[in-house]
Specification:
41% of the residues lie in helices and 22% in strands. With 383 residues, it is α/β, with parallel strands linked by helices.
Amino acid sequence: MSESPAFGVYIHWPFCLSKCPYCDFNSHVRRGGIDEERFAAAVAAEIAATAARIPGRTVDTIFFGGGTPSLMKPQTVGAILDAIGRHWTIAPAAEINLEANPTSVEATRFAGYRAAGVNRVSLGVQALDDPALKNLGRTHTADEALAAIAIARKNFERYSFDLIYARPGQTVAAWRAELARAIAEAAEHLSLYQLTIEPETPFYALHEAGKLVIPDDDAGRALFDATQEECARAGLPAYEVSNHARTGAECRHNLVYWRYGEYAGIGPGAHGRLLIDRVRHATATEKNPEQWLARVETHGHGLVVDDALTRDEQADEFLLMGLRLTEGIDPARFQALSGRPLDPGRVADLLGVGFVEKTRDKHLRVTPAGFPILDAVVADLAA
C-alpha cells in the first residue's frame, strides 16, 4: 500500500446508555436526556469553523465515533453529513462509518442510517460469551450481538465488529473457539483488542485492589499469537496490530490516522491533525459535552488545543502511528518530516534481533516478534 493523501472527518458523539468499567474514552451518561438538535447544530457550526481554516478539501472518509453514535436519530446523522457536504466536497466513493452498540441497534434505525448515507458500521460486540459480557459491564447478550451483526449484514455492504480478549480467566482454547465463531460472522474485518487496565476506570481500582486479575504477560502473548494464527488462517491477516481484514477491506478512515494523514476532529473531546499554511496543527476540543456546547455557541468552535507541531513532534507521531501497520513506514517520509534520517545504528540493532524488517518497497516494518513490544520498538527508533 502507498502513502495515503486521504482527508478524514471524525465526529465524536459523547453519549452512552451506560459507562463500561474498562472504558477511558470521552463518553458520558445523561439520565435526563440530551437536546439532540442543539448538539447537532453545534456540530454543524464547528464543521463550518474548521472548514473556514482548511477550505477546499475533498473528504474521503467520515467516522462517527463515541460514545455511542447509534443513539443518534438517523435524521441527525443525515443533517451532520449535509453540513460536511456544504463546506467540503465529499468524494463519491467516501467511506462513511458509524459505531454502534448491539443494545442500540434495530432494523429501522440501521435502514435509516443507510438512507442517510452511512455505508459501513462498526459494532461494539466485545465478547460472544454471556458471562464475559456481564463482567465487561455490557448490557447485551451474545445472541443480541449476533442479531445485530445480522442486521448490519442485511443493511450494509461493509461492516465490522470489535472483540476484547485477554479477559480475566480466559484460556487460549476458549479464545480460539470464540474467535472461530466471530470469524464465521465477520465478512471481511475484525477489530481484536487486548484488554488493558486504564487509569481512572473502575477496572483500574479493582485491579489495584487485587479483585480483578487479567492474564499475565506470557498468557497475554499466547492469546495474541493465537489471534494472529486464527485470523491469518481464515484469510483475515492483521493489517494493524489490533485490526484484521481481507485485502482491500481495511477501515479506510483508520488508515488516515495510521498513515499520518490529515483529519478534522469535530465534537466534544475530538482530536484532529490539520495542515494550515503547510504547518501541521494538533487540535483538540473541550471534553465536557455541555461546556463544549457553550463554547461552540459562543465562539463557533470548541477548540482548547491548537498547537503547531515541531518537526520532531511530527516525526515521533509518524513513527507511533505508522509502525502499528504491517505495511510499515517509509524512512524517506520520516526524514522529510524530521529533517534527519532514522538512526542507522538503532535500525541495525532492531534488524539484528528480528523486531523489525525491511520490505521490498524499502519500508521499515515491525515483525510479528516485535508487535507484542511495539511501544519499546517505537521508543527505540524515536530516541
